[in-house]
Amino acid sequence: MDNKVNLIDQQQLEFGRILEVSDLMLVGAIDEQWESVTELQLLREGLLHTFFDNSLELDNQSVSIGIKHMINTDQQLAMLAEKERSLLQGQINKFKQGKSAVKAYTI
To answer: Where are the domains positioned within the chain?
Structure first.
């Protein structure tokens, strides 16, 4: 019985860490720290693989709530990434226009 309780406690800690990393990814995206978001995403991916490679002792409801939280976080991340991509695309277009204008005046 003690081993099962210890295993459940360990899995709760591991799953909590996964959710914490998900939240840190969102904070990084909000702060436009995209390199950090990428590093955290790789960390989370490894944690998820390790967590789900083992048999789960946690109750399904807890896991379900956590997965829904990750999905929600990932949706917010996707929206922020799309916004950033659009901003970068706008900057690239302005740069191209400036480059074209310089060429037109230097020919």
So the answer is: 2-77
